[in-house]
Amino acid sequence: MEYIDALDFKSRELNQLIAEKLKSGQEVTILNPHSMHNIATGLSVQGKIIVRGSTGFYAGGFLEGPTLVVEGNAGWYVGDNMMDGELLVTKNTGCNAGTYFYGGTMVIYGNTGSRAGYGMKGGTIIVCGSAGRWSGQMTLGGKLVILGKVGKQIGESMYKGVILVRDKEAGENLGQNVFLDKITEPEMQELAGLFEQYEIKADPEEFKAIRPLATGRHSYVLFEPRLNPELSR
């Protein structure tokens, strides 16, 4: 285990040092983060990073491979553009958690702000608490799981993917272009495995699925313009 005091570095220097330690096979613990922005961004090596305290914006952005554990809160855009690996936040996060999430797994054990999973394309995001409005907006793929209350316009303008919710009032907060559906047996089995792996106490049978409509405003008709040059003379 390698301990690094974040007070001694700027974020770029800190991330370079983290990458070096991980490449040498060491597990890294960050002390005194004091909500520093950009902690553990752009890391594409295997290993484990533990942050003893809260982080600022963009923690774990573009993460590709390692496991990042934030023992505290995380600011806006945690897990932004994450590609692979694990990102665990023991408390709450700000808005836009998992924006353009592409792969891996992020677990938020507390609450999250608005637009969680905005534009996500793959991977799994689990929110053990409540989520603000516009969760899963513009989702293109992947799985967003919310155990607590959901805000308004959830799933607004989804294209693909699924949002699994336990909130019994979720149907009253749906965005455009989505509908509330029953959860499938394979989805329940996958949830059961995730809940066991991440020590989450929840019953998969209590969940419902929010899915994009097969038709709606995202159905397009291609047309070829008919030009009449004579009319412009």
From TrEMBL:
SUPFAM superfamilies: Alpha subunit of glutamate synthase, C-terminal domain. It comes from the Bacteria. Coiled coil: none annotated. InterPro entries: Glu_synth_asu_C, Glu_synth_asu_C_sf. GO terms for molecular function: oxidoreductase activity. It holds the Pfam family GXGXG. Residues 39-172 form the Glutamate synthase alpha subunit C-terminal domain. This is Glutamate synthase family protein.
